[in-house]
Description:
- With 140 residues, the protein is mostly beta strands.
- It contains one helix and nine strands; from the N terminus they run αβββββββββ.
- A four-stranded antiparallel beta sheet has the order 2-1-6-7, with no helix packed on it.
- The longest helix has 13 residues, at 10-22.
- The radius of gyration is 16 Å and the shape is globular.
Amino acid sequence: MAIVFSDNGCDEVLKTYLNGIRAGNNLTLRLYTNDVTPTQTSSNATFTEAAGGNYAAATLALNSWTVTPANDPSDATYANQTFTFNGNLTGNATIYGYFITDANNTHIWGERFGASFTPTNNGDNIIIAPKLAMSNGTPA
Length: 140
């Protein structure tokens, strides 16, 4: 089945995407520990997910996004997600960024942090503010 978007562009893409999530597909926020920069062709295989130190991926519940389609560009935000560590990670102990997967474990997007983070002490934490922002730029 093909999805056809109206001429409203970015607003419609964001609404359709989030309506798909709300239909039953939660997203999962994961931290990665290999020194890579996500690209448009990144996949789950691109990333090594963090492990140890009390790390657990965070579920972004299907009905908890705040959508603001009147913004220019349209956006959707989610409450800050805090990862608190009780010690060192196993394997590579440095976190370089995060990636998001859907309910089918399909890679949705990823982002590298401006500076890497290495949790070493009980109580070290990292806070991520998930946001989807649609561009209304002119396609190439």
